[in-house]
Amino acid sequence: MSVAAASRGARLHRLERSALTGVLVREVVNFSSYWRSATFSSTVEPTIYLLAFGFGFGSLVSRVGGYDYVDFVGTGIVATAVLFSSAFPAMFGTFVKYQFQHTYDAILAAPVDTEELVTAEALWVATRAGVYGCVPMLVAIPFGLEPSWGMLAVPLIAWVSGYGWACFGIAVAGYAKSIENFSYIVSAVLTPLFLVAGTFFPISALPEWAQVLANLNPLHQCVELVRHAVFGFQGWEDIARLGVLVAFGLIMWRIAIRAMTQKLVD
């Protein structure tokens, strides 16, 4: 404890680059041992959704929301891939690291504080989400989705969205008393948000009260930003949507830091 306290006492400022880099390098090295399974689980499931809905419902509904249905789903499913590759790994990975592996105890013994630990973990998960989130869109291209220059903005959109969901997952892990508690979050929070994100059908088909709630859904903002990036940006509307994602990420970041600080101190 005295060594850790002395290390923290010598710190220069918040979010030191050396501390963030140290945690990130550890994550990259560790990821090299399981990247195949992580890539498989984060990309195959959203791709299956794309193929099942795009061609299953696509055979019944040719166009929706002014788009070919395959294009509609192919762009919308990006948000699903981001969710699967950020919130879920952050929840389960964080819980395992502090509860069973005690990885965070070892990291915090170095000149790294909880704020830097949470920030670095979220940055790493968001980076993975930014890559994995593009896979369904790339898969949709051979099936008719027209490439466009706006697609180059999709990794950034996925990264910003993924950062917020990564912090959400870390916060959930910080407040959870057992890993079984995640079932409540998945069933009562993530699944409803996933279904009303506008991925598989436009939210204009929902009742007015549901549309209002859907517009507060960060997943919906990600869906709309990706569609507009591919088919044409909508100016200030998209800037506002991006602002919502940034605000979501910042709020969840602070909540995640608070949750993990309480958990690691206890």
Rg is: 19 Å
Record field, number of beta strands: 2
Element-by-element helix/strand order: HHHEEHHHHHHHHHH
Helix segment tally? 13
What fraction, in percent, of the residue positions are helical? over 70%
What is the beta-strand fraction?
Answer: under 5%
Structural class: mainly alpha
Largest beta-sheet details? 2 strands, antiparallel
* Overall mean confidence score, pLDDT: 88
Low-confidence stretches: 1-9
Number of individual domains: 1
Q: Tell me the span between the first and last alpha carbons.
A: 14 Å
Give the overall form: globular
Strand order of the largest sheet: 1-2
Can you walk me through this structure?
With 266 residues, the chain is mainly α. It has one domain (19-264). Helix content is 73%, strand content 2%. It has 13 helices and 2 strands, in the order H-H-H-E-E-H-H-H-H-H-H-H-H-H-H. It has helices at 2-9, 17-31, 35-56, 69-84, 87-99, 103-108, 114-132, 135-140, 154-175, 182-195, 208-215, 218-231, 236-265; strands at 63-64, 67-68. It has a two-stranded antiparallel sheet with strand order 1-2. The two termini are 14 Å apart. Mean pLDDT is 88; it is low at 1-9.
Using brief descriptors, characterize the structure shown.
266 residues, mainly alpha, two-stranded antiparallel ribbon, 73% helix, globular, disordered N terminus
